[in-house]
Amino acid sequence: MGRPHSQDRAQVRLEWGLAGASAVSVNATYTVVVDVLSFTTTLSVATDAGIDVYPYRWRNASALDHARKHGATLAVGRLEARDSENAAEVSLSPQAVRAASGLRRIVLPSPNGSTISVELAEAGARVLGACLRNHSAVADWLSARFRDSPGSAVAVIAAGERWPDGSLRPAVEDLWGAGSVITVLRERGVTDFSPEAEAAAAAFGAVRPHLADALMTCSSGRELCEAGFSGDVAVAAEVDTSESVPVLVDGRFVDAARHAGQSV
Question: Distance between CA 89 and CA 82 in Å, rounded?
Answer without folding.
Answer: 9
